[in-house]
Every structure is written in C-alpha cells, then in structure tokens.
Amino acid sequence: AIPLVVAISTAVSAQNGLLIRNRTAFEESRKISALVFDKTGTLTKGDFGVTRVEAVDQQFEPDELLRLSSALEQSSEHPIAVGIIKKVKEKDIAVPKPENFNAITGKGVEAKVEGKDVKVVSPGYLKDEHISIPDGAYSSAAETVVFVLVDNKLAGYIALADEIRPESAEAIKVFKNNNIKVMMATGDNETVAKAVSEELGLDGYYSEVLPHQKVEIVKELQSKGEFVAMTGDGVNDAPALAQANVGIAVGSGTDVAAETADIILVNSNPQDIANLILFGKATYNKMI
Length: 288
Ligand code: ADP
Ligand code: MG
Fold this sequence. Notes:
alpha/beta, Calcium-transporting ATPase, cytoplasmic domain N, 2 domains, seven-stranded mixed sheet, six-stranded antiparallel sheet, 12 helices, binds adenosine-5'-diphosphate, Copper-translocating P-type ATPase
C-alpha cells in the first residue's frame, strides 16, 4: 500500500498547495473529526493595516508611538509587525535602531530604543503585568490591538485590522458537511476571536492562547475522542503540531514548524485542507 499512498500524496500535493511529509498523514486525513486552525494568515489574510494609533500617556504623540514601535517591528516577521512598518513607511517616519532586540514568546517584542526600554505586546502581557487595558482599546470588534510600553509604563496602543479570507467560508462548509468540528486557537484578543468565529460560524474558539496552551487544547480534544488536526506557523507551535494526530505547518512558517508537521500547507489556504480530506475519503472509500 505504501507506493500507492506515496503516488496519491504526490498527486494531491501537485494539484493543491500541500506538501505531505508523513505518508500516514495523508491516509489519516480522512479520519479527522476536529480541526483547530490558527487565525492570522490562515483563516484571515494576515495582511494587517493600521487603523488607529492612540496615546494613553500624553507625553507621546501617535507618530512617536509608531516611530518607537517601528524600531522593534523591523526585526519581526509577525504580520502585525509588517502592518506597522507599512504605516511607518507611508508616513515617512525614520526608523530608529534598536539594541538588545528580543521576541517575547507569544506576547510581543522588546528592545532598547534611544536608551528607553520599549515593548510592543499583546493584551495578555498587560494582564500578566497587572496593567489595566485602557478604555476604548476595543471599540471595534474587528481590530487587533497591541500595546506600546515605554520603560514598563503604558504609552499607548496601535489597532490593526485584517480580513477574513474568502476561501475560509467555503472550506468551513466542506468541513461541516463532513461532520468535522472547526475551532480556532489564536494569540489575538477575545473580541477579534469572537467576531471571526461568529462570522465564519465556527464550533468554538480559544483566544489569547499562549503557545504551550495549544498542546493542552489538542490533548483536551483528543481526550474527548476527537481525531485532531491542527495548523501552526511558528517555532512555538511545534509541540502542538507534534501532539496533533495530523500536524499542519502553514505558509512560509518556520523550519521548525515545518520539520515537526505531517503536512505543509504552502499557501496557508484552508480550502487545500478541505480538498485533502475529501480526496482522502474518496480514495479510501474506493480502496475498501
Ligand atoms: P497569532 O499568530 O495568533 O497572532 P502569536 O503567538 O504569533 O499568535 O502572537 C500572539 C500575540 O502576541 C499577538 O496577537 C500580538 O498581540 C502579540 N505579538 C506577537 N508578535 C508581535 C509583534 N511582532 N508585535 C506586536 N505584537 C506581537
Ligand atoms: Mg502566529
């Protein structure tokens, strides 16, 4: 059966944006009963535009918040970073040089900029540091918000918007028709997670998820008898991809995610997963 599966997997991956690293993953894709997608860049386009920049500490002008943030974000590949840098370029703001740049796992980035300790972080980070979220930060359900800290004090925030991929809705129809539960696990805030989940009619979502929590999410579903597929794009996602019955690395994800995954979803398009599952079911039904 091995050469047949190899031949089929090759054919499927040639037709779709899939690379199958583990041949049993193709065989097992037909058993998937729950899919856990990441949000940014998979269910959504991952193409963020800055919608608002608000100062909380009036010492800082919005452009100054962008300028300080850009020093850090130029070293990050996160879609949020790409969105912030796009805005800074549009405004012709000169990007300062950072020192001691550090990515805070699943929470943001930090560096020294002109002698100041600057951080651009998630709402979860604020919670951990017992810093309250300013009024108005979540005035729109469609916005992802990151917070700018200067010397560990909240200076302001930057709101960004992304769009749902049109292909996501199509793919979700296929999953529903095949009785596959579709969930989302995102590091993004509750408001955005809920809005995306409702718009796509998902069966559930997990928001403000830290990388190690993704493993727990997979285990919890497995303990309920689900055969779980999970997507992920980062180094941090590797343990969850390994835990999943079918681990799917998306897009130009890091090598570590790709090395752990059973399948690589080249175009980050959920519809390619739908095609894989349908193709797997059809193939094995014929064989039996
Ligand atoms: P996701 O891929 O679901 O956004 P991540 O683990 O990549 O999850 O990020 C979690 C959160 O950490 C983001 O939603 C954001 O709030 C924050 N974050 C991560 N990287 C950056 C960055 N470069 N700049 C600002 N915030 C970031
Ligand atoms: Mg991510």
